[in-house]
Amino acid sequence: MKFSFSKKIIHSILFTLCVAVPYLNNYELTFLVWSATMAVSLRRTYSKQLLIQVGLFTLILGIALFSSFFQDFGSYDFIRDITYLAKPIIGLLVGYQLCRNSLKDPLQTVIYTGVLLAIFHLFIVFYGIVFVGFRNIHQIRGFAGFFSDFEIYVIILLLFSDKFGVALSRNKKSIFLTLLVLSSAFYLSRTNFLQFGILFLAMKGYFVPNRRNATILFSLVLAGLVAYSAILYYNPKRNGKGIEAFLYKVKIAPTEPFKTKINTEDYKDFNDNYRSVENINTYRQMRNDGAFSVLFGKGLGSKVDLKKEVWLDDASLRYISILHNGFMTVYLKSGIFGLILLSLSIFLLFRKQITNNQELTNLNYLITGTALFLFISYWVFMGFYFKADTKAILVGLLIALSERISSQKSTQKILE
């Protein structure tokens, strides 16, 4: 018997593979799979919006390459940084190309991919609890993963499936939501909670500027401040178990990435505010290196001296080339000009054309929510540049899908 696979099936498999492989935490494998997928799905034409996004990230890489000519770094660090800074470019192209080329139902492909990830994650959690014997959230997260932005997007797509024209039975939708909510709960990620809130509000249209929405958002911010005050009053302890561990992380969230003075001899202060440690050392190092580094960065292969050994990525490191903060990472490599380009890439996602097509309006809402969330994502987890991040693929897909819908509506008007 002869088996054959259509291009649509192959591209659906490639999409799932590209989204799933970063969860293995092997960036070399991720880069290989993404690059191969990009190569086999290349198009002859691309939209202006996609080319602008790709162009901005290419310029960031180009500035870092230019700065490298004035530095002397090892070849391994140089090549590694090229692959890191190229990740958003490849991700955007992969998502765009697969959607524009042959994915028949892109959002259904996204949903089924998210459900598979949730099942896989729940299996790992189950294995860790039953067979390894993990009993606290720190152990479970360290074993099964710390967050999954992609699964939150799928939850949003399921909750608003009618608005996106996704056809799913009520039972299937309920089962998928149960799996995804359970999986996301075990990540117990502060960022994912914020992500869900931002995307949910975006899909409700609350970020459209008017008096009603401003009142609603102000009320929600006030409620958030009251809830945070309650957490401060409860005063969850460091190294607590279960929900207390999560509440402690919430308690220190406002200062963790923004603190400007840290006692590096106090391990509690150092560990709780480690993201700020990276930012402080990067800022000081760049300032001391002079105006050229501030404007154009220190280039590919550059590193930040943490002043002491820190356990990161299963190794004890003092010099690091990639920070938790995506803005500071770009600042290190490409300077202020790189930061301007990165900020512009986010800002342009906000600028969506007004349309009477409801499905396209809802896609624009989701892209707007994504743009807002990216500011947070870049600040705490490197955004598109994080090794395990898949949002670039999803954004590329959403851009392509909005163009498909626009072209289909234009064709229908011509035929009418």
UniProtKB/TrEMBL annotation:
Keywords: Membrane, Transmembrane, Transmembrane helix. It comes from Flavobacterium piscinae. The lineage of its organism: Bacteria, Pseudomonadati, Bacteroidota, Flavobacteriia, Flavobacteriales. The keyword Transmembrane helix applies. This is O-antigen ligase domain-containing protein. The keyword Transmembrane helix applies. The chain crosses the membrane at residues 50-70, 82-98, 110-130, 142-160, 175-202, 214-234, 330-350, 362-381.
